[in-house]
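Incident log, structure service

09:12 report received: a user says their structure output differs between two submissions of the same chain.
09:20 pulled the input from the user's history:
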Amino acid sequence: MRQLWRIINLAANTIQTFFPSNESMSTSLASDLRATPVIQQVAEASFRKTQTLYDASCFIDFDNKNRPYTNNNLFSQSISYTRSGRTSNYTHRTSLIDLLTPIDPVLSTFAWTNNASNIRILTDGRCGSACAIFTHFLSNVHKVDAYAVGGIKADQLSMFSFPGGIVSNRTVLRRYYTNAGLASPLEPFPYSTHLGVTVLEIYAHGSATPFEYDAALYPAAYRVGYTTQNSRNRQVMWEAVATHAWKRNSTVMECDDF
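09:34 re-ran on a clean worker, output below:
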């Protein structure tokens, strides 16, 4: 679970660095998890004992003023969703508890703090996971302009490759059962392999579509075409972005696609 916290905390604290806020959910997205009978079994045994993904006390209850769950209702009172024509049981919307560092007073002295006009994002689209979450917040929530580099002229480019959520694997899932004192329903593979499974989906604010399928949130505002100059020197690329964004004097030509 520590690895999961690190990923989520990285995203939340990066958002907090640029747009500090004490408001609930200011750095978090709603999420849900599958709630099959075997998951409900491990969740019941894990509550307030394991601090793992299936311990409801690690999540906040949207119906109780965003306070941590005081019971296992998150998993025991599941609801049905139909996704891609398939109906399954899921938890109600929730979010992992934020573990934010205190707001540093020095942030108020920076020109970019809470000022989207002084921030720009430059991405080649490989940004993913925690990077995708804070890029989404900066661009789609706080309206920071994003520039994506590469691609084909006139085509929109994505800011990130895959958004956050939580992907686990067979080994970790088996460990959840062991930590809860249960026999895992997942047998080990007879050979060495790695199988990743999405276990927690996230949702953009006000959206009913899981983030990874919410394609309208992906495109960058601008595209920067590669040139023989900027492909060899990132400073040249940043100068082109700065020229376009803030109309500064520069010897660098702006790309036609801005």
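09:41 both user submissions now match this output. Likely a transient worker issue. Closing.
09:42 reviewer note: The CA atoms of residues 57 and 84 lie 30 Å apart. The first helix runs from residue 2 to 18.
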